[in-house]
Amino acid sequence: MPLDKPYLDVPGTTIFDADQSRKGYWLNQFCMSLMKAENRARFKANERAYLDGWPMTEAQKQAVLARDLNRCIALGGNIYFLAKIGATDGKSFQQMAGSMTGMSEQEYRDMMINGGRSIEGNRVLGEDGDAQPHRQPQGAAGRAARGEA
Questions:
Q1: 14-91 CATH choice from 1.10.10.60, 2.60.40.1940, 1.10.700.10, 3.20.20.100
Q2: Does pTM surpass 0.70?
């Protein structure tokens, strides 16, 4: 029986949960391999050959080769692991995040300094304030907060 995952309905957001972790296991292991200088050198020398040494899906390999980090995330990549690809390419996290949002590094930095992106269009579907049963406090504290006995 599949688990109920009410948190999966955030528009434009891929939630990294256990299923995503399993899907991206080898992609994320490849990324972690880039922590070693000798692996970074092998990858940069022949990216395709290095990727072919990992049991990743072809879609994952193509996403890495294209540096399509949004696609990598959809295919199970975790941004903290994917940052190793950016570091291998000499990119900062801000440069990577900017590329994922269609912004320049400076535009991304300015947006974050000025309070981040708008939440409009990025809330949980059907969200009205904090009136989501799966996000309400539980137990005695929750009952008290809801005015229940």
A1: 1.10.700.10
A2: yes
